[in-house]
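Q: Hi! First time doing this. I have a protein sequence and I read that you can turn it into a structure. Is that right? Here it is:
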Amino acid sequence: MSFEVYDYRTVNRNVLVTPEIRARLYHMKPGQVDGRHSHDLGHEIFLILEGLAEFNINGTKQQLGPGQMCVALADEIHQVRNLLPDKPTIMYLSVTPHIHPTHTGRTETDERKPPHFSPNSNYHAEQDMSVPLADLLAQQTQAATALVEAAQANLAAQQTLGTQMLAALEAGNQEAAVEARNAMWDAVYRLHKQVYAFDAVWNEMTPRVGEVPS
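A: Yes, that's right. Below is the predicted 3D structure, encoded as structure tokens:
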């Protein structure tokens, strides 16, 4: 990935979209109010760069100006309003992780709306539409199989190496304990990388199915 620099005064789009994170520079129009929603898996961070916005997070309202930040945790219902009638409010926001369906709409009584899988193009993410859906499903099955294998390997590593680490600590062998701990991390690392690999295929496949007519 190339080293790119983004100027928040002119850039109004997602600048990074991966399963690990979606990062965006966001220009809210004067008086704009976004819909009530939550994120099933992701925490969302908002940092105001210019302007003034009202945040309603789980029923608590706060006004934020330049330099102020707030967080909506996973499953917390939130809504944002630009309080300026004649100027945009500009903010940085990020959601992590970024797994479809990325937004869960909420009614005025906080009930969850049916999941909506937005096209990747909505997030300024490129997608190769020439790949048949059947091939994506096959890739997802392969990724799921690899994930199970990584989980099994991680379990074995935690059990075996965890025992070795405790034994080393009891024997006063700090070097061996650290070596075992580091080997445990290697298994955790491989597991998480495989989770992200599965999520990447999931994010490619699900928007392709389309929405079920109501």
